[in-house]
Automatic annotation (TrEMBL):
This is Olfactomedin-like domain-containing protein. One of its GO terms (cellular component) is synapse. Residues 222-474 form the Olfactomedin-like domain. Keywords: Coiled coil, Disulfide bond, Glycoprotein, Secreted, Signal, Synapse. Disulfide bonds join C223-C405. The lineage of its organism: Eukaryota, Metazoa, Chordata, Craniata, Vertebrata. The keyword ATP-binding does not apply. Residues 174-220 form a coiled coil. One of its GO terms (biological process) is signal transduction.
Length: 481
């Protein structure tokens, strides 16, 4: 509730100093309000004056929040406001005035606090003096001793005179500060009216335009370099220690089916859940019985078909869910199998299928490659190998691996404390060692795959089905249109 400043801060020690005021608290509150308003206006003006970026945008995007919403953070090229803009110049001048007023108020506040302490200390002295004066007035005779006592008391009160004079001066300063704040309020109201609805609508249109541009850029240039992995999101706890679960990376957005394959060898039963919510609840699923058992956990669902490694062989199989039949199968020449070159956790993980923004991949190794990880780009229709890269990284030293935007990322362990340690770039046939930590919550990862549609990592961790969001770094060149 607003209260009249004139009615506050009155000091009346012993009834002798009525009318002496300290700096009213509402003035300071009003001043803080003005400073806040100025900062808000300056920030808004700065946003309004930004032109289109001429240089490359840096975009860090964490693809999916826990609530399913896409997160994208843009670091735009540095821009500066136009120093000749009259409103910007006027706001700077007002900010300087407010700063000066603020400093004056602080000095005044400290001085008033000090003087108040002095007045409180002299209050008892004033009461004694008042009592003696009343007694003297009633007796109408003053002896020498009483007169000397009164004289001594009066000497003790002499320092109060400059304090009261200072209060008079401070009161005048408060009146001046009130007037300056009132003038600032009027000027700010005028600026606010001048920057009113038109600039707000213009800013809103600008934001919408930038959002549309950013969305278009992300659609066209969705690839980026992995810079971070979120904390794990446990979706469900089910099945054995080892297994795999996935969605179709090529399915339309309305198709949210989940496929579930428990175990790492000799399995043939694939459960198809209608949605992620049904998978969480363990309901509404159909069963597919594969004609050939699988090996490992490196399966993927891509464009309506399951790609997996046939048990005790280096044969890769494409199984079509709708027709419930094998579309094609082919031997992956020289590829190790049956725990010849598995990941560090074993589990017949010799051949690992992956899908990213560029299509279907197979990760494995051969004797000719001395057990180092081999990456092959595959034709999803025929399972023919289109191109192969030797990464030079020993597969048995890898905990798991996954592809993002043509880059193979390798973890250094499947146990607690694992991190993404190695990256191989197929577009340049180069590699680098990385240090990207992620929280291995259940201490035994047996499946780790990237889903480019959702931009998340699917993980099977010690009987838990877990998701990780990823953060990618993009540099998008623009021409400032």
């Amino acid at each position: 509730m607003w209260r009249d400043p004139e009615e506050e801060g009155r000091i009346s020690p012993g009834g002798l100093c009525r009318g002496v005021r300290s700096p009213p608290a509402p003035h300071r509150m009003h001043l803080l309000t003005m400073i806040f308003l100025l900062l808000m206006l300056q920030a808004r003006l700065t946003q309004t004056l930004f032109p289109s970026p001429e240089d490359g945008w840096q975009i860090y995007t964490s693809a999916q929040a826990p609530d399913g919403k896409c997160i994208c953070t843009v670091v735009a090229p540095a821009q500066t406001t136009c120093s000749r803009d009259p409103r910007s110049r006027q706001l700077r001048q007002l900010m300087e005035k407010v700063q000066n007023i603020s400093q004056s108020m602080e000095v005044l506040d400290l001085r008033t606090f000090r003087d108040l302490q002095y007045l409180r200390n002299t209050e008892s002295l004033m009461k004694v003096l008042d009592t003696k004066l009343r007694a003297t007035d009633s007796q109408r005779n003053v002896n020498a001793k009483s007169f000397q006592e009164l004289k001594d008391k009066m000497k003790q009160l002499l320092p109060l005179i400059p304090v009261l004079d200072q209060y008079k001066s401070d009161t005048k300063m408060i009146v001046q500060l009130k007037e300056e704040v009132r003038n600032l309020s009027n000027v700010l109201l005028l600026i606010q009216e001048e920057m009113g609805a038109y600039d707000y609508e213009e800013l809103q249109q600008r934001v919408m335009f930038l959002e549309a541009r950013l969305h278009a850029c992300m659609q066209k240039l969705g690839c980026g370099k992995l810079t971070g992995v979120s904390n794990p999101i446990t979706v469900r706890a089910s099945g054995s220690r080892f297994g795999s679960w996935m969605t179709d990376t090529m399915a339309p957005s309305a198709d949210n089916r989940v496929w579930y394959m428990d175990g790492y060898y000799k399995g043939r039963r694939v459960l198809e859940y209608r949605s992620l919510n049904d998978f969480i609840k363990g309901q509404n699923f159909v069963q597919h019985l594969l004609p050939h058992p699988w090996a490992g956990t490196g399966h993927v669902v891509y464009n309506g078909s399951l790609y997996y490694n046939k048990y005790q062989s280096n044969i890769v199989v494409k199984y079509h869910f709708r027709s419930r039949s094998v579309s094609v199968q082919r031997s992956l020449n020289n590829a190790g199998y049956n725990n010849t070159f598995p990941y560090s956790w074993g589990g017949f993980s010799d051949i690992d299928f992956m899908v990213d923004e560029n299509g279907l991949w197979a990760v494995y190794t051969t004797n000719q490659n001395a057990g180092n990880i081999v990456v092959s780009k595959m034709d999803p229709l025929t399972l023919e190998i289109l191109k192969t890269w030797d990464t030079g990284y020993p597969k048995r030293s890898a905990g798991e691996s996954f592809m993002i935007c043509g880059t193979l990322y390798v973890t250094n362990s499947h146990l607690a404390g694992a991190k993404i340690y190695f990256a191989y770039y197929t577009n340049s046939s180069t590699y680098e060692y990385t240090d990207i930590p992620f929280h291995n919550q259940y201490s035994h990862i047996s499946m780790l795959d990237y889903n480019p549609r959702e931009r998340v990592l699917y993980t099977w961790n010690n009987g838990h089905q877990v998701l990780y969001n990823v953060t990618l770094f993009h540099v998008i060149k623009t021409n400032g249109e």
